[in-house]
Design a protein that fits this description.
Distance between the termini: 16 Å
Shape: globular
Number of helices: 12
Low-confidence stretches: 1-36
CATH topology of the largest domain: Rossmann fold
Structural class: alpha/beta
Number of domains: 2
Length: 344
């Protein structure tokens, strides 16, 4: 029955999308300059600090020139309703964004009439598919914060629907742009032969383990190693995760998830010409710059294939844990995800 309902949901979504206008509502000429059509951003989800950080950066009176006049003009607060650590933030974060002249609206539908682009910030990845499809139906380009969804199966539907209706979607953790990664990717140590990354990995019972917070370090690992992971093995206890992937070309990349002691972000990258450590967390602005470039150009900074493989890596780690630490092929989790979607 669950598979049938899911298939009906996907089919109904696609049918509803047919014929929907791809044009956004134009702003009235009398609006303040930052609310003029073309650079208006709407936020879905005021249950995460990311929403506050992005709004403060974009709407500050001395906003960086690299943001090119883009501003957050409206927000729909919800948002998780049953993850207490998220839902309890909503009243305070709502009041905070209002200080920056952000209009609070009662629905995503209302939000979409007031903005040109969307940042889907809801902290609860279980809600992302439903919320994102409403944005896609309106033809709005969208940044989807981590995790893009709370399952690989949902992410496949999201990206396939976005591709069908030609709506660019970008998703990434800010840790993709960790200090030091640019020089490594520019070839300073030659071809990358392997990597080890680490980050906090707090757990949330409603999400697969790494989806909630470990995704930050996993995103860094994939930013360095690229796609092509073939299998994953995970060693896990209450304090630590160690997840090791083997790529199809024989390279090995590992992620350490921290749940006790000092929590931080970083890693070590191994190359043909040298070994370099990654620097620390560099804040939200490097990611925000990429989001604005994406909104301006329509060019997605991270391909969907890579984002989907990150989710497959994390689901393989979940399955490896459930199977007492034996290696799991990524092909296995891809098969399970498509079966969950009724073969579609």
């Amino acid at each position: 029955m669950q598979t049938i309902r899911r298939r009906e949901f996907v089919q109904n979504t696609l049918l509803t999308c047919v014929g929907v206008s791809m044009a956004g509502t134009l702003a009235q000429a009398s609006l303040p300059s930052f609310q003029q059509s073309g650079k208006r951003i709407g936020i879905i989800g005021l249950d995460t600090s990311h929403s506050i950080a992005f709004t403060k950066a974009l709407n500050a009176k001395d906003a960086s020139e690299v943001f090119h006049g883009f501003k957050v003009v409206a927000a729909f607060p919800y948002g998780s309703r049953d993850i207490v650590s998220s839902s309890e933030r909503i009243p305070g974060y709502t009041a905070e964004v209002q200080k920056f002249e952000v209009e609070i609206v009662d629905s995503i539908a209302e939000l979409l009439t007031k903005v040109d682009f969307v940042m889907l910030e809801t902290n609860d990845g279980r809600l992302h598919l439903e919320q994102a499809l409403e944005v896609i139906k309106a033809g709005k380009m969208m940044f989807v914060d981590k995790p893009v969804t709370a399952s690989l199966a949902d992410a496949i539907i999201l990206y396939e629907t976005a591709r069908k209706f030609k709506v660019p979607i970008f998703s990434s953790s800010s840790l993709r742009y960790i200090t030091g990664i640019e020089e490594i990717l520019s070839g300073r140590i030659g071809a990358i032969t392997g990597a080890f990354t680490f980050s906090p990995a707090k757990l949330e019972k409603t999400h697969p383990d790494l989806f909630w917070y470990g995704i930050h370090g996993v995103e860094t690992l994939f930013a360095i190693m690229g796609t092509g992971c073939a299998s994953v093995v995970r060693v896990s206890n209450d304090e630590t995760d160690l997840v090791t992937g083997t790529w199809v070309d024989g390279r090995i990349g590992s992620f350490r998830g921290i749940r006790s002691g000092k929590g931080d972000y970083g890693g070590i990258v191994f190359g043909e010409k040298g070994i370099l450590p990654l620097g620390g967390y560099s804040g939200y602005n490097p990611l925000l710059v990429q989001i604005i470039r994406f909104f301006e150009s329509g060019v997605v900074p991270v391909k969907s294939e890579e984002t989907l493989e990150i989710l497959a890596f994390m689901e393989a780690a979940e399955l490896s844990k459930a199977r007492s630490g034996i290696p799991v092929e990524l092909s296995t989790v891809w098969k399970l995800a498509y079966e969950k979607n009724g073969g579609h």
